[in-house]
């Protein structure tokens, strides 16, 4: 039996002539097509099930991936804060940097089991929220 990719096994290539065994058992040539097509239909359904299982496994997130995403988000917030600082030092209003900072802080924050990392991320989030509040005060005062 030959396997041809994700569709599963194919029917045997050569057709063998039906032999009659000594016990009187014989295969008819017409009866072999129905079981082969049923096997192909079953293997096609198995391929769909396999894909669904793979998709479900990809949705499962392990703790190291959550930690990596949390660190990436914190690093991104620090980058946005640096952009804002540079814009303010240049004398600009920093509206584009504030918009990017606001978008980044609205992103979902993955929870991590490490209390030290959680504390650092809380401090970064707080600093970003303070900068957004200060910008809002500047807007309303002007």
Automatic annotation (TrEMBL):
<dbReference type="InterPro" id="IPR019704">
    <property type="entry name" value="Flagellar_assmbl_FliX_class2"/>
</dbReference>
<dbReference type="Pfam" id="PF10768">
    <property type="entry name" value="FliX"/>
</dbReference>
<feature type="compositionally biased region" description="Low complexity">
    <location>
        <begin position="21"/>
        <end position="42"/>
    </location>
</feature>
<keyword id="KW-0966">Cell projection</keyword>
<protein>
    <submittedName>
        <fullName>Flagellar assembly regulator FliX</fullName>
    </submittedName>
</protein>
<keyword id="KW-0282">Flagellum</keyword>
<feature type="region of interest" description="Disordered">
    <location>
        <begin position="1"/>
        <end position="42"/>
    </location>
</feature>
<keyword id="KW-0969">Cilium</keyword>
């Amino acid at each position: 039996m030959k396997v041809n990719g994700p569709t599963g096994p194919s029917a045997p290539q050569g057709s063998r002539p039906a032999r009659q065994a000594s016990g009187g058992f014989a295969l008819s040539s017409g009866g072999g097509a129905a079981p082969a097509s049923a096997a192909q239909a079953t293997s096609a359904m198995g391929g769909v099930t396999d894909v669904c299982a793979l998709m479900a496994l990809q949705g499962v997130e392990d703790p190291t991936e959550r930690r990596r995403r949390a660190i990436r988000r914190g690093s991104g917030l620090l980058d946005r804060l640096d952009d804002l600082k540079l814009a303010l030092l240049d004398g600009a209003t920093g509206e584009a940097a504030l918009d990017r900072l606001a978008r980044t802080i609205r992103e979902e924050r993955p929870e991590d089991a490490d209390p030290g990392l959680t504390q650092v991320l809380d401090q970064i989030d707080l600093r970003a929220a303070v900068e957004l509040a200060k910008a809002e005060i500047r807007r309303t005062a002007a």
